[in-house]
Amino acid sequence: MRPFDYQAPADAGTAVAAVAARPDAAFLGGGTNLVDHLRLGVTEPGLLVDVTGLLPNGISDDGGGLRIGAGVANADLAADPRVRRHYPVLARALLSGASGQLRNMATTGGNPLQRTRCLYFQDVTTPCNKRSPGSGCAAIGGATRQHAILGASEHCIATHPSDMAVALSALDAQVEVLGPDGERTLAFGELHRLPGDAPERDTVLEHGELITAIVLPPLPVAARSDYRKVRDRASYAFALVSVAAALEITDATITDARIAFGGVAHTPWRAHRAEQALRGATPSDETFHAAAQAELADARPQDGVDGGNAFKIPLLTRTLAGTLRDLARQEA
Amino acid sequence: MTEMLEHRAIGADLPRRDGAEKVRGTARYADESPAERPAYCRIVQAPLARGRITGVDPAVAEASGGVLAVLTPRSPGGRGAAEQLADTSDAEYAILQDDEVHFRGQVVAVVVAETFEQARHAADLVEVTYDEQPGDTLFSAERNDLYRPEQVESGDPPDSSEGDVDAALEAGPVRIRHTYTTPMLHNNPMEPHATTALWEPDGHGGAGSLTLWDSTQSVHAVGTTVSGVLGLDPEQVRVVCPYVGGGFGSKGIPHQNVVTAGMAARAVPGRPVRLPLTRQQTFSLAGYRPPTVQRVALAADADGRLTAIANDVVEQTSRVKEFAEQTVLPARTMYAAPNRRTSTRLAALDVPIPSWMRAPGECPGMFAPEVAMDELAHELGVDPIVLRERNEPETDPDSGLPFSSRNVLACLHRGAERFGWAGRDPRPGERVHGGWRWGTGVAASVYPTSRMPVSEAEITRVDGRYVARIGAADLGTGTWTALVQIAADALEVAVDEVDVLIGDTDHPEASVAGGSTGINTWGSTLVAAAQEFRKRFGDTPADGDSARAGVPPNDAAERYAMSAYGAQFAEVAVHADTGEIRVPRLYGTFAVGRVVNPRMARSQLVGGMTMGLGMALHENSLFDPRTGHVVNHDLAEYHVPTQADVADLRADWIDEHDPHVNAMGTKGIGEIGIVGTAAAVANAVWHATGTRVRDLPVTLDAVL
Amino acid sequence: MDHELTLRVDGAEHRLSVDPRTSLLDALRQRLGNTSPKKGCDHGQCGSCTVLVDGVRVLACLTLAVTRDGSEVVTADGLSAGPPGSGGDHPLHRAFIDEDAFQCGYCTPGQVCSAAGMLDEFARGRPSVVTGDLGADPELDDAEIAERMSGNLCRCGAYPGIRAAVARVGREREGTR
Question: How far apart are CA A15 and CA B346, in angstroms?
Answer without folding.
Answer: 59
